[in-house]
Design brief:
With 139 residues, this protein is mainly alpha-helical. Helices cover 33% and strands 6% of the residues. It is built from 5 helices and 4 strands, in the order H-E-H-H-E-H-E-E-H. The protein has a two-stranded parallel ribbon. It has a two-stranded antiparallel sheet with strand order 3-4. Helix 1 crosses helix 3 and helix 2 crosses helix 3. The protein is globular and about 45 Å long.
């Protein structure tokens, strides 16, 4: 299993952890999801459970694409994460002078991903806004 960090092996990830890691691998470059977004998308657990999975098993997936809800890069990993964000073109908001360390935050309005995978033609996947198949258009 190549996704688990080689620095620390907490054992094989369980089914929930595998689902979290699979979801993280779907997040496109330049986009992010919050810990809560991942949990909501999976329909199970919460931000803390996702954070725990990422802390234990996230070293082999693009961990920088799962962020805190305030857009602040993961404490202790800011420089690595910022290098990845800049390489991927992830939208950032420059930090003000009062911000500790002047570390930019993510621009979550522009960078947040909703979990929809694009269709083969490049359009957004999921609901096309056309209603259900049995929708007769009546109101």
């Amino acid at each position: 299993m190549g996704r688990v960090s080689e620095e620390y092996d907490p054992g094989a990830p369980g089914e929930y952890a595998e689902r979290v890691l699979d979801m993280v691998e779907l997040i496109p470059p330049g986009r992010v999801m919050t810990y809560g977004d991942v949990a909501e998308w999976l329909g199970e657990g919460g931000p803390r459970q996702v954070g725990r999975v990422m802390a234990l098993y996230g070293g082999g997936v693009p961990w920088w694409r799962v962020v805190r809800s305030d857009g602040v890069p993961l404490p202790g990993h800011e420089l690595t994460a910022l290098a990845e964000y800049r390489a991927e073109g992830t939208p950032l908001r420059e930090a003000g002078r009062a911000a500790e360390g002047h570390v930019p935050r993510l621009d979550l309005r522009r960078a947040r991903w909703d979990g929809r995978v694009p269709d083969a033609d490049g359009g957004p996947g999921g609901d096309d806004g056309g209603g259900d198949a049995d929708d007769d258009g009546g109101g």
